[in-house]
Amino acid sequence: MKDLIFSLIGLTAGVLFILALKGLSHPKTARRGNLLGALGATVAIVLVFFQLEEIKNLGWIIGAIAFGLAVGVPAARKVEMTNMPQLVALFNGVGGGAAALVAIVEYLKHSQDMTIAFLIFTVFTVIVGCVSFSGSIITFLKL
Predict the structure, then answer these.
(1) Average of pLDDT values for 113-140?
(2) Using CA atoms, how far apart are residues 126 and 131, in angstroms rounded to an integer?
């Protein structure tokens, strides 16, 4: 029963992301789409916390979320609309860099008992994350 509830909550988060994309497709509904996306992300993050048997490094996780909010929210509120593409490029680059770093840490943690599939996906994630990071930073600097 617990797995069914977690699955339904995960499905709800997915539906919220889809509705967010639909809302972001038109200027009149973009604000609502943005809020639905934020709600979907919040639901997904909370779901992950409740699914874990043991949460390791909770202080680091909460600190990272607080730091991201402390930097991201004021930046998003202060930026002028003409500078929005630069902000989006910067945020995208940070996400790509984070994905690459997480993949590297997972490789270092599991390198002893790693399957070939895990290795392929890890290397692919590092490549995509680094390309996203470098491309976004180049875009940020050119805009």
Answers:
(1) 94
(2) 8
Q: What is the average pLDDT across 36-48?
A: 92
C-alpha atoms less than 13 angstroms from C-alpha of 105 in its C-beta half-sphere = 6
Q: Are 33 and 20 in contact (CB under 8 A)?
A: yes
Measured from the Cβ of residue 38, the count of other Cβ atoms closer than 10 Å reads 12
Mean pLDDT of 90-119: 92
Indicate the pTM of the whole model: 0.68
Instruction: Look at residue 55 and tell me whether its pLDDT is greater than 80.
Output: no
What whole-number distance in Å separates Cα of residue 58 and Cα of residue 110?
21
Quick one: 84 and 50 in the same domain? no
pLDDT at 138 over 80: yes
**Looking at the structure, do residues 84 and 38 belong to the same domain, yes or no?**
no
H-helix or E-strand containing 97? helix 84-110
Q: Which domain holds residue 87?
A: 80-143
From residue 88, how far is each of 68, 96, 136 by CA, in Å?
A: 15, 12, 9
